[in-house]
Design a protein that fits this description.
Structural class: mainly alpha
Order of helices and strands: HHHHHH
Low-confidence stretches: 34-56
Mean pLDDT: 75
Largest sheet: none
Strand content: under 5%
Number of domains: 2
Radius of gyration: 25 Å
Number of helices: 6
Shape: flat
CATH class of the largest domain: Mainly Alpha
Number of strands: 0
CATH architecture of the largest domain: Up-down Bundle
Helix content: 55-70%
Distance between the termini: 70 Å
Length: 187
């Protein structure tokens, strides 16, 4: 049986891709962080060096906070709208706005960010508490259900704030679409 060089090369490339994928799985995709990845080289492996607390802390630690001062307007907009094509579309519309409407849009986005970021930090903290409750030696289903309820309430508040912000932005942007584009300053 004759095998061409192209077929042999294709098989070799396929074998290398399979080996690289298997290596990535074996290494845990670059040593992911978390309670299930404490054993280097074995990805998610629960039980090794992971000690569940005897009881959940009263005030769980919160995740690192995002400082809004370090984000530009597009970063803040993506925080509200999501990192998708809508944020890009809004950014393009934002460039067409006159200065007073730009200031109005920036104010709406900043107010929403100030409202949403503490809620997101609350969700992260509550999820940490839930993880501690789940892995505690004396698991209490009532506390777990209470934590799940708090998480869902916080997420509902986040989505309501996002929706209100987007609706306000849509009013301004729809009005901007009706108007001709503002003249750009010449350089």
């Amino acid at each position: 049986m004759r095998t061409s060089r192209k077929a042999i090369m294709l098989l070799m490339v396929g074998a290398m891709l399979i080996a690289a994928t298997a290596g990535a799985f074996a290494q845990g995709f670059g040593h992911m962080k978390g309670p299930g990845t404490t054993m280097p080289g074995y990805g998610f492996f629960y039980g090794y060096q992971f000690q569940a607390p005897d009881s959940a802390p009263e005030n769980p630690p919160t995740a690192p906070r995002i400082e809004t001062a370090k984000l530009d307007f597009i970063g803040l907009l993506r925080l509200i709208v999501g990192n998708n094509s809508y944020a890009t579309f809004y950014a393009a519309l934002y460039q067409r706005l006159p200065a007073e409407q730009k200031a109005q849009v920036e104010q709406i986005v900043k107010e929403a960010v100030v409202q949403i970021l503490p809620l997101q930090n609350g969700v992260r903290g509550e999820k940490l508490l839930l993880d501690n409750l789940l892995w505690a030696s004396d698991t209490d289903k009532a506390k777990i259900d209470e934590s799940i309820g708090k998480i869902s309430d916080l997420q509902k508040q986040i989505e309501e704030a996002r929706v209100n912000c987007i609706l306000e932005l849509n009013k301004i942007f729809q009005a901007a679409l009706q108007q001709p584009a503002a003249p750009q300053p010449e350089k």
